[in-house]
Specification:
This protein has about 425 residues and is mostly helical. It has 21 helices and no strands.
Length: about 425
């Protein structure tokens, strides 16, 4: 891997180009479907490759290494399996049966709150926001179709609940990265973290319970598929909660959906193969933009973009609040540049620890701030894995989801307020 150069502001140009073309262009056009996200990614990638002074073959090599990073390839494997799982379960009737059961059991007024709580519970048990989104987004999308509710709104509820668990779970990558880089126990980090984000979760839950912003209009009906068609979803959730690897979980879900679908006459073997292929194909754009983002962000790192952000944010730190604000800003900008909250925490972890030691900030508080602010911004990135996955499964634009992401927004506000009032307080390092 190429070593990063000294801090360099111009290294951030590809990111500016990407955001400018996709976000600003779409806002001007008034339609987020007018400018494909892949076109913005391609343009930014070309800028990233050509702006270096090295031979183009070397730049392409660096870009390719970033695009095929082990974390990127793992993400792509998840996308492929998730697409196959979502398509096969829908074809054999699992989605329809689950939706019918949900609408029958849960009162209309509490359906949004119920979806949020289900996502929170699943994510804190599974330890991954992406896995939670894979499991619950198809259900939320189908509920939206049957109730006349805004799909983006219900999908945003799932994403918000998924980020809750990603931030707090003991088995979350972000929790592990934050505690290891700061040298504190997971228990201490959790106790500090929960005091910051619990108000955000309660506020969000109240909004979903009492808000009439999105009225639901539905009449509970009998399931169009046998009850046992929901078993693949139950199997996926139970195995994930039990700690099984997400790739194994999704593979198990695919196999179980095929066996049950064929056994109950909903699918033939050829139909099963065909639906899986269609599901995988539907993830094509998602896979392409993920690889482009990985390559582009690696070029930013190599050319000194992240070093520039770090040096600028830490240059004028004078107080404890300022130190905590700089730690929050560091991980936010690192996440914007990497589109991966775990990588962002690891990238700035050692610097954050130095700042914390200098200003007497407890390790558990620093770990909590790193995890919370990285999850906050990760949930709002239209090119982040969470929104890309949710948008792909729901067949909507990731930007459509962002205005409805109440929990990440409130979580970020609560974390900022915690810095302002210095809550919770610890005297230990």
């Amino acid at each position: 891997m190429q070593k990063p150069t000294k801090a360099n502001f111009t290294a951030l140009l590809p990111l500016v180009v990407f955001l400018g073309i996709y976000l600003i262009g779409s806002i001007i056009a008034g339609d987020f479907y007018k400018i494909p996200i892949t076109v913005a990614g391609m343009t930014a990638s070309i800028v990233a490759i050509t702006m270096t002074r090295r031979p183009i073959s070397e730049s392409i090599g660096d870009y390719s290494r970033g695009a095929t990073d082990v974390n990127i390839m793992l993400m792509i494997w998840i996308f492929v399996l998730a697409g196959a799982f979502a398509a096969s379960t829908k074809a054999m009737g699992a989605v329809d049966a689950t939706v019918a059961l949900t609408l029958k059991i849960v009162p209309e007024a509490f359906l949004p709150a119920g979806i949020f709580l289900a996502a929170c519970f699943t994510s804190i048990s599974v330890g991954t926001s992406v896995g939670t989104i894979v499991a619950l987004t198809p259900i939320a999308s189908a509920i939206a179709e049957q109730t006349g509710c805004d799909t983006a709104w219900l999908v945003a509820i799932v994403v918000g609940g998924a980020l809750f668990g990603d931030n707090l779970s003991f088995i979350s990558d972000t929790t592990i990265a934050a505690t290891r880089t700061q040298g504190c126990s997971m228990r201490d980090k959790f106790r500090t973290n929960i005091l910051i984000v619990a108000p955000a979760a309660l506020i969000t839950l109240c909004v979903y319970t009492f808000s009439n912003q999105h009225s639901l209009n539905y009449t509970p009906t009998e399931a169009v598929a046998p009850w046992y068609t929901i078993l693949p979803y139950l199997l996926v959730l139970i195995s994930a909660i039990a700690g099984m690897n997400v790739l194994k979980v999704l593979t198990l879900g695919i196999v179980s959906s095929g066996i049950i679908g064929i056994a109950c006459g909903k699918l033939s073997v050829l139909d099963w193969f065909s639906t899986m292929g269609q599901g995988i194909d539907s993830m094509g754009q998602l896979i392409i933009i993920t690889m482009m983002a990985g390559g582009m962000l690696e070029m930013i790192r190599i050319n000194g973009g992240i070093e520039y952000i770090i040096s600028r944010l830490t240059a004028r730190v004078r107080s404890r609040r300022g130190a905590e604000a700089s730690i929050a800003s560091l991980v936010i900008f690192a996440d914007i540049c990497t589109a991966n909250n775990t990588v962002a925490i690891i990238s700035v972890g050692s610097i954050a620890r130095q700042i914390a030691e200098r200003f007497g900030i407890s390790a558990r508080r620093t770990a909590s701030l790193l995890d919370t602010f990285s999850c906050f911004i990760q949930g709002l990135l239209p090119y982040g894995a969470q929104l890309l996955m949710a948008a792909g499964l729901a067949s909507i634009s990731p930007v459509e989801i962002i205005p409805h992401l109440y929990y990440p927004m409130v979580m970020g506000a609560c974390a900022a307020f915690a810095i302002l009032i210095q809550w919770p307080r610890y005297n230990d390092r």
